[in-house]
Amino acid sequence: MNRRHLLLALPSLAALPAWGQQWLVDAWNRWKSNYLASDGRVVDDGNGGISHSEGQAYGLLLAQAFGDRTAFNLIETWTQAKLGIRADGLMAWKWQLDGLADTRNATDGDLLRAWTLLRASRDSGWLGHEDKIAPICRALVEKCLAPDPRAPLELLLKPASHTTADGNSVILNPSYYMIRALIELGDATGEVELLRAAAHGERLLITPNALRDWINVTPGGIKPALNLSNNFGWDALRLPLYLFWSGRAAHPAMQIVSTRFAAAMLDRHVATVTDSSGKMLVQSDAAGFRAVADLAAGRPPTLPNPGQGYYADTLALLAQIAWREGK
């Protein structure tokens, strides 16, 4: 796809100066060159070169948003062949060069993939994959939702189907809550439980203690998850991306996470990892991390600066799409 077609696929780019448009188009092409293998595998270069369901879903989402049907079909074909091997419609979460490494699922990858397949059919008119949406959503409802121990009639989004959840404890990764995806999939498929999970998740994120990489929801409240990160770190920094994209720029969590990002000690850096007290542990000037901090502050995201690693470069592009669609 040439530059003109990419610009047409992202009409809001007209609001950017010409050099900004060129940067964004170039960034997508560079992303493909750096992280998309010729067979459709998205390569996480910061994690030993593995591929995972989250990365495949992000690749699909970027391809759809940029109007790149060739890349979309390539990514989905590899994903279905290598990760779509479970009988329940969910994906195996990890694949590495010596073959499939872990057949357990990761709920965020499944949620984002189903949402992107919906967007492809509904918004792009790309037919051929829409029959996968309903089975994924049914599996998410049946296997990846659990009652909140504090309010058993409310539903929480488990991080995986195998995760143990009972009346005393539900382990959560709050960054898996992509409210917009849950709502749009619930509306499209009639799975009202996804709508309930979205509404309850939005309320959950009002609680400052929920703004962590991992939490344990118990009858007595939110506690640290044993042997998992209690930091606001590499997972949780996606929270403002998803909230802004979901039209929740005024959500109370945005000010809290914006303060955490601002704990960086160096100019033009953001604190990418802060501990439970808000103390900065890691900081970065990578464009992708600065872009999600920009969304938390309600300002236009930093333009991509490709070559800073799979995760940062992916967030940089996703933030541009979120800015366009979430306002």
Automatic annotation (TrEMBL):
Task: Report the EC number(s), separated by commas if there are several.
Answer: 3.2.1.4
InterPro entries, A to Z: 6-hairpin_glycosidase_sf, 6hp_glycosidase-like_sf, Glyco_hydro_8
GO MF terms held by the record? cellulase activity
Q: Where is the signal peptide?
A: 1-20
Write the record's keywords in alphabetical order, separated by commas. Answer: Carbohydrate metabolism, Cellulose degradation, Glycosidase, Hydrolase, Polysaccharide degradation, Signal
Share an example GO biological-process annotation for this protein: cellulose catabolic process
Name of the top EC class for this enzyme: hydrolase
Q: Which reaction does it catalyse?
A: Endohydrolysis of (1->4)-beta-D-glucosidic linkages in cellulose, lichenin and cereal beta-D-glucans
In terms of Pfam families, this protein maps to: Glyco_hydro_8
Coiled-coil intervals: none
What SUPFAM superfamilies does this protein map onto? Six-hairpin glycosidases
What is the similarity comment for this entry?
Belongs to the glycosyl hydrolase 8 (cellulase D) family.
The name under which this protein is listed is cellulase
Organism of derivation: Pseudosulfitobacter pseudonitzschiae
